[in-house]
């Protein structure tokens, strides 16, 4: 799936060392997983993604985000689709840190939503992020999400409890924004 600057493609086995690098970057994890200590070994990742890589996973789809100009992988995003009634999908995204703040994340999220809403027909998408993650919240708003509310002191890192924001977007809102009359 191509955007102007980024491309989404399915995760391949050869990407696991990259994921391993991002999942062991304390700065990335501090925002993406709410805590810098959220590290995983390559072996654990190989186990975690084995089913998805063999096409047997139907509750999660992971995509690699590439910079189209160079073909370089710059991050990943995910759709979690455990809702059997096909109502809600939960999404997530991370970029390696030298790519933050240049528009790639918003564009990649819009491509992910195109898959979720235009191709798979999900009714609603949601996501959680640290309430203090202003860059992410701004990016998600640009991609059409709205803040539902804040769960107070729902996570803990750096010696303090932190608020977590829930954001949502309905397919009807996506359609209204993206469909030409
Ligand atoms: C969240 C993430 C995917 C966003 O992608 P991105 O490419 O960095 O975002 P964009 O550049 O498209 O948009 C960021 C917006 O936030 C603004 N911004 C950047 N830093 C900011 C800050 N400290 N405070 C407020 N706004 C900020 C930018 O100006 C931009 O808004 P604008 O276009 O209106 O000027 C990326 O930053 C990332 O991977 N961060 C680490 C992991 C993470 O936080 N994941 C999401 C948590 S679930």
Explain what the structure shows.
The protein is of the alpha+beta class. It has a single domain (6-178), classed as 3-Layer(aba) Sandwich (Aminopeptidase), CATH 3.40.630.30. The chain has six helices and seven strands, in the order E-H-H-H-E-E-E-H-E-H-E-E-H. The structure holds coenzyme A (COA). Coenzyme A binds at residues 28, 31-32, 75, 92-95, 100-106, 129, 133-136, 138-139.
Q: Which strand order do you get reading across the main beta sheet?
A: 1-2-3-4-5-7-6
How far apart the termini lie comes to 24 Å
Q: Give the CATH level 1 class.
A: Alpha Beta
What is the correct CATH architecture?
A: 3-Layer(aba) Sandwich
Ligand catalogue: coenzyme A
Largest sheet: 7 strands, mixed
Q: Quaternary status of these chains?
A: single chain
């Amino acid at each position: 799936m191509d955007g102007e600057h980024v491309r989404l493609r399915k995760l391949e086995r050869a990407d696991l060392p990259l994921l391993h690098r991002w999942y062991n970057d304390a700065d990335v994890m501090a925002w993406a997983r709410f805590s810098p200590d959220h590290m995983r070994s390559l072996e654990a990742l190989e186990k975690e993604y084995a089913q998805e890589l063999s096409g047997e996973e139907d509750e999660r789809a992971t995509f690699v985000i590439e910079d189209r100009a160079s073909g370089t992988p710059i991050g990943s995003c995910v759709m979690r689709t455990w809702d059997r009634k096909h109502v809600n999908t939960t999404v997530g995204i991370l970029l390696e840190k030298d790519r933050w703040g240049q528009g790639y994340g918003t564009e990649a999220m819009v491509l992910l939503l195109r898959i979720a809403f235009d191709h798979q027909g999900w009714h609603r998408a949601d996501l959680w992020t640290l309430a203090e993650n202003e860059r992410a919240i701004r990016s998600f708003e640009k991609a059409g999400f709205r803040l539902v509310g804040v769960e107070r002191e729902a996570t803990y890192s750096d010696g303090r409890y932190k608020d977590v924001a829930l954001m949502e977007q309905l397919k009807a809102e996506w359609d209204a924004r993206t469909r030409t009359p």
